[in-house]
Amino acid sequence: MGTNLLLLDSYKNIKGLIDYAFSFSNLSGRNLKIVYVFDFDWMRQTFMVGAVGPVDPQLISIEKNAKKEYEVAEAKIREIAAEYIKEHSVKIPFEIHISELNRIGLVQDEVEKNPDVMLLLSNYQTYSEASGGMVGYPNLIEHVDCPAIVIPEETGITEIKNVVYASDYHPEDINSLKHLFTLLKSSDNLNITILHNEKHLDFGDKLKWAGFREVMSKETGIENMDFCLKSKKDMVSAIMEYSKEKDINLLVILKEKKGFFEDIFSSSETKSVLTQFHKPVLVYQESISN
Questions:
Q1: Which pLDDT belongs to residue 43?
Q2: How many of the other CB atoms lie within 10 Å of CB of 24?
Q3: What is the mean pLDDT of residues 181-190?
Q4: Strand 162-166 vs strand 191-197: parallel, antiparallel, or unpaired?
Q5: What pLDDT is stored for residue 289 in this prediction?
Q6: How far apart are CA 102 and CA 168, in angstroms?
Q7: How many whole angstroms separate alpha carbon 250 and alpha carbon 163?
Q8: Does the pLDDT of residue 97 top 60, yes or no?
Q9: For residues 132-161, average pLDDT
Q10: Which pLDDT does position 240 carry in this prediction?
Q11: How confident is the model at residue 249 (pLDDT cuts 50, 70, 90)?
């Protein structure tokens, strides 16, 4: 059985994140492991290399508050988990831990022990925003070898019926879609839509789209899969427009080594998807979708 790893580092929206982790784990039939991390010092050292002069007093205060939260985090998480269990059926094993190991190392260790790990994390960068940018985050999705779900604020118990898979005609879309369907197959009335965008849509693009639809339907074996072709300036615009047309529960993207993923996660549009989209985003890794 696979494991969903929920990584926490503050109390911001902690109940919503824990509720989502439990409900998603129940839905996907996967073990749940909740880990609260305190790696503030590692973050500070990593992103202040070469800095001179005294440490900003504000940064010291923020670090102390983060440490206080960490010291009672396990008890708080267990309390929230107990509240969830009182009100909902929990069908999967779960465990709760705290750690001072840096988050990249922690996730890598989990993947080494069990390759079938899915990372769950908030889209809110706690240390970075609390410190006014004095402490930064490495792009965790860039450094882990497992799928990751980025969960926006105010997301709690999940119901996944309408899923959009943003495709750029990558061969590994087939394996990612197969994994996605297996992951969510217990969801009632599940509908998966493949979304593609062509900036300049011509007759050749339409023929390619028709062939792609036929191949994906045949190779994935997913019945009742929908397809949507957009012609916007970029994929981000296409996703945003589609989300206004349909009630999406989950956006899925394959993190390619190059391609439109870079436009989404390495450009000024990043926050439009991860922080303003207001829906969970599941990111598959190109290297692990085989």
A1: 66
A2: 25
A3: 90
A4: parallel
A5: 44
A6: 33
A7: 5
A8: yes
A9: 76
A10: 87
A11: very high
Q: Which two tokens mark 68?
A: 């206080």
What's residue 276's pLDDT? 60
pTM tops 0.90: no
Q: What is the torsional sign of CA 7, 11, 16, 19?
A: positive
Q: Look at residue 188 in the predicted model and tell me its pLDDT.
A: 84
Tokens for 135, please give them: 């402490």
In whole angstroms, what is the distance from residue 286 CA to residue 290 CA? 8
Instruction: Map tokens 């061969």 to a residue.
Output: 171
Kindly report, residue by residue over 259-281, the tens digit of the pLDDT. Answer: 544 555 544 444 555 556 678 99
Can you read off the two tokens belonging to residue 6?
């929920």
Give the 3-state DSSP-derived string for the chain, with helices as H, strands as E and coil as C.
CCEEEEEECCCCCHHHHHHHHHHHHHHHCCEEEEEEECCHHHHHHHHCCCCCCCCCHHHHHHHHHHHHHHHCHHHHHHHHHHHHHHHCCCCCCEEEEEECCCHHHHHHHHHHHCCCEEEEEECCCHHHHHCCCCCCCCCHHHHCCCCEEEECCCCCCCCCCEEEEECCCCCCHHHHHHHHHHHHCCCCCCEEEEEEECCCCCHHHHHHHHHHHHHHHHHHCCCCCEEEEECCCCHHHHHHHHHHHCCCCEEEEEECCCCHHHHHHCCCCHHHHHCCCCCCEEEEEHHHCC
Answer whether 135's CB lies under 8 Å from 47's CB.
Answer: yes
Q: Are 216 and 192 in contact (CB under 8 A)?
A: no
List b or e across 96-118, with b for residues whose CB sees 16 or more CB atoms inside 10 angstroms: bebbeebbbebbbebbeeeeebb
pLDDT of residue 142: 75
pLDDT at 288: 47
Q: How is residue 149 written in tokens? A: 């779900």
Q: CA nearest 85: which of 6, 167, 23?
A: 23
